[in-house]
Amino acid sequence: MKAEDNNSRRNFLRMGMITTATAAVAGIGLSKVLSKDKAEKGSGEEVKVLSADGKVFVADSSHLKLKTHTPVTNAESRIGIPGKKFVMVIDLAKCEGCGKCTIACNKMHHLPKQREWIKVLEMQDSHDSAPYWFVKPCFHCDNPPCTKVCPVDATFKREDGIVAIDNERCIGCRFCMAACPYSARVFNWSEPMWVEYSAKQGDTTSKSTCCSKIEDVDPTDNDAPPERFFESKKGCVEKCDFCPHMAREGKLPCCVTGCGKDAIYFGDQNEDAVTNKSGQTVSLSQLLEDKAGYRFMEELGTKPRVYYLPPVNRQFPKPDMKNSESKS
Amino acid sequence: MEHNNQKLVEQVERELLSTIGQKYKNERFWIGLLTVISLFGVGAWIYQLKRGLGVTGMRDYVSWGLYIALLFFFVGISLIGALVSSVLRFTGTKWRYPLLRIAEAVTLSAILFAGVMPVLDMGHPERLYYLVTNGRIQSPILWDVLAIATYFTGSLIYFYLPLVPDLALMRDKLTGISKFRVWLNKFMAINWTGTPLQHKLLKRAMGIISVVILPCAISVHTISAWLIAMTMRTGWNTSIMGPYFVFGALMAGCAMMILVMALLRNGYRLQHYLGHTHFDKLGMLLLALTAFYLYLNINKYGVPAYNMEKDEKEFLDDLMFGRYKIPFWFVQIGGLVIPIILLSFKKIRSSIRYIVPVAALVMVGAIVNRYLIVVPNMLHPFVPIQHPLPGYDSYNPTWIEWAISTAGFTGFILFIILLFKPFPVITIWETMESVEKNGVDEVGLEYMSNQKYAPRYENYEN
Ligand code: SF4
Ligand code: SF4
């Protein structure tokens, strides 16, 4: 069971790589590996490969793996991606409350269905004001109360703005959960489930005792995720991590690409640019100015890195607050 | 008079020496029972370690529960040592002598279990040493660890120092005890011979530590208050939290002191030495502290209840009229108002039979209040709880938590009882000194004349 699952995961990864192999050969980000799998039958398609020491040789494409990233050391992932300041903008006017961002996030992080790092809530500020959908990831605050209280530096602020958690370090005191005013953090009360989602979105096959826990994976292995924040571990806290491993590859976080309504933008404040799923890249400052962007509970002084655009001229029906189990 | 006093002093020495190593009343039964309950709790903890904190009732919203409430409770109880040994010392109270060592023992045991509680609550207790290797001094948890460690050390010293002359006395006068205990007394008495110089040094050392221990005690509990006051949560984020904790703690400590005194008085047959005076005086102290705590409660809940700010309103509604109304009003009325009324009567105060249940009432109120400080707040975060998983929007401690918490209490009592197996409950030399100087009445000793050697009065009148 164990070996089989491992294999299928590897195959899945390799498939993704081959499609990009042609483009990558021209570049330098390719390395030869997997000689151990020689027994497998090659696909017959031959590619020319430039090795790191400048030699060109021919290999069977099925024996190649694309090195999507250089493995990131623990120290590096504590510092973050140099020169970046990640920022997110959520346009509440565009959100229809479908929850696809949550589904995409759970899929990416192999979380069980109701474990929500990004939540979609029904909000109504006062009795007569219009209800709206409120999407809430971790805000990756610039003045994060959660990291302030951590006794062992297990949760920390990186230079690129991301608030991350080192679950090899976390002692599970849950002080950060008490300190976060936005209830962004969740705890692994018991042995976490590692859920493999099938290719079809939202369709889950739960394999709670599955093999491919990341702790089994050799960190120097190319398949290992570059930042090891998102492995759920018993007795540790976790939360939305802004998908730092995607950012290393220059990709958008999964919630952004999961949102069919283009409601979430993600980008770099230093470049003053944010991008949504459709690939529209806009100026952050312009966007915030034009649409009166704001941050949630600014008065707490936590300086979130997530901005909201108010739910004006909503493009989708408002939530029915009667269905909401909100206790307020 | 002088001559009479001298005789009484000798009697004190004889009687107190004879109590050392005495069997606790029904010792087998009590110690056995307490041990079994404690061991059951240890078993529950091992189970919790294996399965993870999922076996508790805590979930993502209420992420702290019974264990943290008990942490606050135990830290609180530990303040009594400083109150009795330092404050009463500064005020020159003469009846304090027989209470000194009991107070220090309560403190030691309480601070010990206060140190255990957060470890029980941790997701990764095996990583505890990270606090040393990777500690961040900015975190209030680290302050708490340092404060608890300091206070524990201080209390240990404060327990030991006045013990030295007693140990020397035991070394010189006790016969017929095991070889090990002879050696122990000798070793721990560190060559005390009672010379004037030694006395002077001891008195000075005790004077210093009684001053040092007071800020330690207050800081240790203020910092536990800060653990929650330094978060941005409705009901927690208030500057009254420090004093609120400290005075709540003194109150609970005083009630605990009365209970432990009654326990030891009965168990180790100390009716001569823990008399009505002591219970009456402590009852008065308890009265003052409960009254002041009621005042703090009115401030803590009254002011936000008047303003009714949006988030406060939801929280206070839940607390006063919602899910927590029964425990809340029990604490305010049963744990404060009624005890205040009862303690106002001298008759109740000075009768040991009556004051024990009153102190127990205050104590239960204090424990429930600690629970109310921790739990209901966590159910009212700024971002509303919506579509929670089953069991996530409430907190009901599981039997595992109850087992472990109960074991905390039994362990606490067991530690005190066992601590007084080898050491005298009442500080002998200080009591003798004080009797010599002030007479028995001032010290609060009772019925000294109508009893002879070795008090063994099972049916002694209260
Ligand atoms: S939203 Fe909460 S968890 Fe995220 S950075 Fe801010 S305080 Fe920390
Ligand atoms: S639970 Fe972990 S990350 Fe959070 S404060 Fe404690 S040690 Fe730090």
Write a structural description.
The complex is a heterodimer of chains A (328) and B (462). Chain A contains eight helices and 17 strands. Chain A has 328 residues and is of the alpha+beta class. The model of chain A is unreliable at 1-40 and 200-225 (pLDDT under 50). Chain B has helices at 2-19, 27-51, 66-77, 79-90, 97-121, 130-133, 140-160, 163-173, 179-188, 196-229, 241-267, 276-307, 310-321, 325-343, 346-350, 352-378, 399-419, 428-438, 440-443. The two termini of chain B are 28 Å apart. The model of chain B is unreliable at 450-462 (pLDDT under 50). The interface between A and B is large, with 45 and 49 residues. The complex binds iron/sulfur cluster (2 copies). Residues 149-150, 152, 154-155, 165, 170-176, 237 of chain A line the site of one iron/sulfur cluster.
Radius of gyration of chain A: 21 Å
H/E series of chain B: HHHHHHHHHHHHHHHHHHH
Give the SSE string of chain A: HEEEEHEHEEHEEHEEEEHHEEEHE
pLDDT under 50 segments of chain B (min length 5)?
Answer: 450-462
Structural domains of chain A: how many:
2
Any ligands, ions or cofactors bound here, and which? iron/sulfur cluster
Largest interface: A-B, 45 and 49 residues
Q: What is this entry, summarized?
A:
The complex is a heterodimer of chains A (328) and B (462). With 328 residues, chain A is an alpha+beta fold. Helix content of chain A is 21%, strand content 19%.
